[in-house]
Amino acid sequence: MFRGISINEFREKFKTERDCLQYILDKKTAGGYSCLKCRCNQYGKGREWHYLRCKKCGYDASATAGTLFHKCKLGLLKAFEIAFRVSVRKKGMSSCELSKEFGCQQRSAWLWKAKIQEAMKSSGKHALSGDVEVDEFLVGGFSAGEPGRSHGSKDLVVLAIEKVRDKNNKITIGRAYCRVVDDASADSLKKIFDEHIAPQASVKTDGWRGYWPLGKDWNITKEKSDKGAGFPILHIHIMNIKGWLRGVHHKCETHRLQQYLDEYHFRFNRRGFMNSIFDKLITKMTQAKPINYKMIKCELNT
Ligand SMILES: [Zn+2]
Fold first, then answer.
1. Checking phi first, is residue 39 left (phi over 0); if not, alpha (psi -120 to 50) or beta?
2. Co-location of 100 and 147 in the same domain
3. What is the 294 CA–ligand 1 centroid distance (Å)?
4. Which of 18, 173, 246, 278 has its C-alpha lying 20 to 30 A from 61's C-alpha?
5. Residue 252's closest CA among 100, 141, 122, 119?
6. Range of the domain at 197
7. Dist. CA 32 → ligand 1 center (Å)
8. CA of 65 to the centre of ligand 1 (A)
9. Which long-range contacts (CB under 8 A, 24 or more apart) does 72-79 make?
10. Which residues have C-beta under 5 Å from ligand 1, the single-atom ion?
11. Is 178 a member of any domain?
12. 211 and 113 part of one domain
């Protein structure tokens, strides 16, 4: 496993397309091979060194087939370096910065960044279980909104954080997750609870009535928000997310806000494990199903 965090370490490890292809091949075989045609998990050598041939049906495919690296037009070396930069840099990089730095069209950088974000989605397997706080916030737009948590032209986001103590016994955030929701109804709010909050967690929310029905399945206590003062570290996290969206991405494409929030939290939740973050990303990219420009753009209409 590659554990480098500097660009020099990266370039020492990945010098050629073959180095990257080998890394993908290793991930594919280590993660348990599954034939794309028949799901058999026995394989043998394929027509080239980076091909795997199914023992049952004979389907022979490159290591990149069935992964986010499928039909990657940038070339694997550039694609790997972009994934490396986006994962290890504290604030990531926008597609505009990437296209300038890597000398590619912004469309290619945008598409590749979208594929990276696809792999940065949370698996939902590690629910928050200790002291959890949940609140909503608005992103984008300038409409003032109306009473009753209507959000006008802005996007409504729910945030869940887990409070932990650091080595100096100071309260800080462990992990955090965000979800873009249509409204602040109980049904919409429940999604982040289902995906990211364990039933045994002690959850604190403000008095908003949308949380009341969730008290049936989660242990929820109400606390006065007092414009955020009742939830200080949660509100610092909200400010950081907003600052990142404004500072790095200027105008985030709002139809892709969830993907940006996934990207932010992929890095945030691994900030203590920087030397495995790139490896984790590549692992997830070899496990995720391929997507293309059309599929990403189609999300616009959903
Ligand atoms: Zn097969």
1. left
2. no
3. 28
4. 278
5. 141
6. 131-241
7. 14
8. 13
9. 72/112, 72/115, 73/108, 74/102, 74/104, 74/108, 74/112, 75/17, 76/17, 76/20, 76/21, 76/24, 77/14, 77/16, 77/17, 77/19, 77/20, 78/102, 78/104, 79/20, 79/112
10. 35, 37-38, 40, 54, 56-57, 59
11. yes
12. no
Domain-embedded: residue 263: no
Distance 42 CA to ligand 1 centre (A): 8
In angstroms, what is the span from residue 286 Cα to ligand 1's centroid? 18
CB-based contacts of 283, cutoff 8 Å, min separation 6: 27, 31
pLDDT digits (tens, 9 = 90+) for 54-104: 999 999 999 999 999 998 989 999 999 999 999 999 899 999 999 999 999
Beta-ladder partners of 51: 62
What band does 116 get if pLDDT is binned at 50, 70 and 90?
Answer: very high
CB of 299 within 8 A of CB of 291?
no
Q: Report the Cα–Cα distance between both ends of the chain, in Å, rounded.
A: 38
User: Strand order of the sheet with strand 202-205?
Assistant: 171-181, 155-165, 131-139, 202-205, 219-222
What's the pLDDT tens digit per position in 15-63?
999 999 999 999 999 988 999 999 999 999 999 999 999 999 999 999 9
- Report the domain count for the chain: 2
Q: Is residue 161 domain-resident?
A: yes
